[in-house]
Please model this.
Amino acid sequence: MRWNDRIGRRIKLSDLHVLLAVAQNGSMAKAASQLAVSLPVVSRAISDLEHTLGARLVERKPRGVELTSHGRAMLSRSYTVFDELRQGVSDIESLSDPSVGEVRIGTTPPLAASFVSAVIERLNRRYPRIVFQVTTDMAQAQKQNLRERKVDLLIYRQIDPFKGEEMSFQFLFESPYVVAAGVESPWVKRRRINLIDLLGEQWALPPPDDSFGPFVASAFRAGGFDLPRAAVVASTIELCASLLRTGRYLTIVPEFWLQFPERHQFIRKLAVDLPVTGAPIGIIGLRSRVPSPVVQRFIDCAREVAQPRNRDK
Model:
């Protein structure tokens, strides 16, 4: 029997689904509970897969199970199998009714609250039955989500974790980092400000161990200054926005956050240049993955929303 025939006749999708559940739970018993089947059913599915492939996929341990190198290799391909099937079903649904479907987006909290929300709002008006799932996380976690097909695409800066042959990048827009203040701040009326003039102000800054913290510190170091004393240390942009509204605080934010979905009502960027730049923002995906029709609609809409900003440059 040829190997291809062996795959088609003996490897079952249900067994691959069991392997995925075991990997996610780290336990056959927990996988059985999640799948609402008995423990012997799970054990038999794993054994059948191991017998068919001629390799051990999991290692039984006192506190559960772990995938072997063979198991991890099989699992990484299984993600693709299930994702392609899911996209196939989505393609059929889109052909039957272009107004339905699901888009799963990975991004950052500032982008989710600004640019991504603007894209979703515009596309939702055209196709109100499309469902959007948005997850926010750090770059390495989002890269893993993309690899495991937990998201369809990322809206992110083109930073190092997303560079490589397996990743594709479609440029959307440039967006520098700026110093921001509330409209009541006296600094807003100044036409030209030097960074040194702001060092003694009340700053709301991210913690040093936050993903954004080292970048903020590098911005001041590049200008020849130490990081100013922070009156408030917080990683949530919503808290910073509330503080800025008082007119007493300053912070550093990406410029897009002040522009999408529309110009911010009570926060303005100050006329000060930061001696650092941010990577371009775009759509990140897997080169080997063809977007479904509904995901392509989201991509097209994202380019549409970004276009006026690029024209203004």
Observations:
- The mean pLDDT is 89.
